[in-house]
Each structure stands twice: as C-alpha cells, then as structure tokens.
UniProtKB/TrEMBL annotation:
Residues in SPOR domain copies: 184-258
Gene3D superfamilies linked to this entry: Sporulation related repeat (3.30.70.1070), Zn-dependent exopeptidases (3.40.630.40)
Keywords: Hydrolase
PANTHER family for this protein: N-ACETYLMURAMOYL-L-ALANINE AMIDASE, N-ACETYLMURAMOYL-L-ALANINE AMIDASE AMIC
InterPro entries found in the cross-reference section: MurNAc-LAA_cat, N-acetylmuramoyl_amidase_3, SPOR-like_dom, SPOR-like_sf
Database matches in Pfam families: Amidase_3 (PF01520), SPOR (PF05036)
Coiled coil location: none
Domain of life of the organism encoding this protein: Bacteria
Keyword hit for Nuclease: no
UniProt key word Magnesium: no
Record's protein name: N-acetylmuramoyl-L-alanine amidase
Transmembrane segments: none
Length: 258
C-alpha cells in the first residue's frame, strides 16, 4: 500500500499567510481534505493520513513525528505563498536526495500542466518538515494570497478543487496509483429537487417548465416516484441557493441529502 501523509500547513492560532480576506490555514485544510477524499474514493491500494483535519495548531515536529511513526511512503505539505510574486512552486529538502528530487519532478510537472499558472520552479530549502521526515517529502506553494489575481483564484471553490485534483494527479503519476474500476458516487450529495410525482407525465410537465426557465433538469426514478432533479452539489449552501433561486421563480424546490 502507498501511504500518503497529507499535511495542511498552519492551523489554529497560526493562520499562516493572510491577504484579501483569506487565511492560508483554511485554504490548505480545504485542499488537503479534498486530496484525501479524492484519493480514497477513486484509487485502490492507497492509504491516507492527515496531520490535521480541523482548525488546530500543530507544531512542525509533531507533523513529522506522526508521518514517521506511521511509516508514510510520502509526505506532502500544502501551503499558500505570500510576499510578492505569483504562481506555483515546489520545495524539497536542500540535501536533494535522488528519489525525492525524482518525485518532485513528476509531481511538479503533472501539477503545472493542470494549474495553468506561472511556474516558479522546483526548489530546495531547509524547511523543518522536509528536514524532519524520514521518507521523501515535498512542500507545495499554491499561489500567492497577497497577490490580487492569485487571491481571486483562491477564492473560487472550483479552483481549490483543481488544486486538489492536481495534487492527486501528481501523486497518481509519481506512485503509479491505480483507479478503482467503479468509482462510488460522492457521499452526502445535496440534490435540488422540484417535485416528486407518481405519474411520469406530471413530472415531465414540471421538467419542461424548468427547462424553459433556463435550467437543465432531469427525472430520476426512485422508490416508484418520478423526481425532478435540477442539480446535485457536494456543498450544501450551493444547493440551498439554487433551491432558493428556483422558488423565487415560482417553482417548488427543496434540498434533499442522499
Ligand atoms: Zn505556509
């Protein structure tokens, strides 16, 4: 099993870099959680542990201790940059061990092709988490929180998802991870539903009206009922806002968790 240790930088009393109303600690946690979720949902033969899964402070030595104790295959520390600049860069320890540099190169290239931002290069530094880990380790700096154009991207949930996916693609490439043949649907999806009908014809009428209002609904058959579904989201508030928008336009709409 490939044991991947994901370390969202900072946390708790240490916000990390701040700018444009954003905090590094929250962004790294969101990215880290998504990396874990995608890896566990879509790949086989992979184990994932995180240094933190909530907003707590954790000393750097504790992060490396946890990874060493677990016997991780690889350590990935996630950060957001600050201090003038733009784009993406990766770090390994300044000892530049061959295997570590090889993995950095695969990760970096794979991530750059997906992120489509300025490439600041593959670097080395004597950072504590890179020094203290017994396994190969990488630290990613994902854009600049204090640069307007970068911060604008970091405010987008879709972009954070892309950053997480880029890490996953990098890891999959670096460790030749195999995808599951059947990928289970995301747990806890929030479905926006506009009515539930025993008769298909009635469901179709509602579907047509919603289409005319500019949406793309479809009919889902569940427990003998025809349910008009307008959207499905992993994020509850996105689902709630679509439901509210539909109600404003005169449709019945509710959010159902499944
Ligand atoms: Zn940081």
């Amino acid at each position: 099993m490939v044991k991947l240790f994901i370390d969202p930088g900072h946390g708790g009393t240490d916000p990390g870099a701040v700018g444009h109303g954003l905090q590094e600690k929250a962004l790294t946690l969101e990215i880290g959680r998504q990396i874990r979720d995608i890896l566990l949902r879509e790949y086989v033969g992979v184990g994932v542990k995180m240094s933190r899964t909530t907003d707590v402070f954790l000393p750097l030595t504790e992060r490396t201790r946890l990874a060493n104790q677990w016997g991780a295959t690889y350590f990935v520390s996630i950060h957001i940059n600050a201090g003038g600049g733009s784009g993406f860069e990766t770090f390994v320890h300044s000892s530049r061990r061959t295997q570590t540099v090889k993995l950095q190169s695969v990760m970096h290239d794979e991530m750059m092709t997906r992120l489509q931002v300025a490439d600041r290069g593959q670097k080395a530094a004597d950072f504590a988490v890179l020094r203290g880990t017994k396994m190969p380790a990488i630290l990613t700096e994902n854009l600049f929180i204090d640069r307007t154009t970068d911060a604008h991207k970091l405010k987008s949930g879709a972009f954070l998802r892309l950053v997480a996916e880029a890490h996953v693609f990098g890891l999959a490439q670096a460790f030749q991870l195999q995808k599951k043949s059947v990928i289970p649907s995301q747990n806890s999806m929030y479905r926006v539903q506009s009515g539930s009908f025993e008769v298909m014809k009635n469901a179709n009428q509602v579907k047509k009206k919603i289409e005319e209002a500019g949406y793309s609904p479809f009919i889902r058959l569940e427990n003998g009922l025809h349910k008009v579904q307008v959207g499905a989201f992993s994020n509850q508030s996105n689902a709630e806002s679509l439901a509210a928008e539909l109600r404003k336009k005169g449709f019945t709409a509710g959010v159902f968790r499944s």
